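Notes taken during the Thursday session

The instructor put the following on the board and asked us to keep it in front of us for the whole hour. The protein is Acetylornithine aminotransferase. We were told not to look anything up and to reason only from what is written here. First, the residues (390 in total):
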Amino acid sequence: MDFQTAKQYDDEYIIHSYGRFPVLLTKGKGATVQDDTGKTYIDFTSGIGVNALGFCDDNWVQAVSAQLQSLQHTSNLYYTEPCIQAAKLLCEKSGMKKVFFGNSGAEANEGVIKAARKYSFLKYGASRNKIIALQNSFHGRTMAALSATGQDAYHNFFFPFVDGFVFAKANDFADILSKMTDDVCAVILETVQGEGGVVPLDKEYVQAVAKACKEKDILLIVDEVQTGMGRTGSLFSYQQFGIQPDLVSCAKGLGGGLPIGAVLFGEKTETVFVPGDHGSTFGGNPVVCAGAVHILNTMDEAFLQDVQKKGAYLKEKIEKMPHVENVAGLGMMLGIQLDVEAKPVINALLEAGLLVLSAKTKIRLLPPLTITQEELDKGLTILEQTLASL
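Then, after some discussion, the predicted structure tokens were revealed:
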């Protein structure tokens, strides 16, 4: 199928809830992907942070394929080994106690919201149910996750939204402390606000929030859907902030290209859910979990140090490029603020053979964590040449 045929069918049969780039991608390997004409691109997006090991990593493909040949699905009514292995690795590497598997980041955030409210209901009663989220946050597209998202642009059309969410200013401890009233059960935050423009939170602020939550028995939830799975240079970003959350949501890179979400429960919350409280038909799917096991085993200390090194290299190189005002983020999750509008630059980069993302007014980079030095330098050359031509 060529691009024009694909576009025609897409226009005819698929809802246009996404603004697509005019490219039909057909196959990829590592951080390089090809379209229907044979043109190649360097991928600095990893499917919005999903392809942690790049396109078609040989060992990941082997793990998934082997599982497909033995058992593709059973439901959570039965035990399966990949699900148990993935949960064990997540707990051992995160310091958390238990795992619930679902299908997406939004579903994982629905799970942490339910868990936080049930914990507080059991201990304090039904009236202690509010959750503090941060302004400029993004937690997903389902109704509760959308209601927890602190951006006015998303709060339209779909009324009524789910009640019980209060918004505090990011990096303003006095503001969030003033909102920790007796009816609050949890705080949810992203250590780096990804969709909000790749905006990192201050370490001192995060630690102060965690301390206040502990003192008030308010659960601390960290949304690691985009920052998790090695993206920031540690398996989970909160591990760089010196805190231990009560609940963690993750997804994206955990699946490496297959749909998965997970809720990680800490010591306070590990017994909150009992049979019937929560569920997911496809959650813990053995094929997806087989891939996740490989990814988790791959992300050892040497792997994570390499991510840190590549992230620092990217930041250093980009900061010296024309039209770049600043580069923010952690590890290989970076946002580039230009002194010109980002959208035309993103389109020009596509034409030149580099795939990047946007985040508000910035160019957002989420390269595969396994990107080679050659691919990294090729992508940076395209970026620099494109910026220099403006």
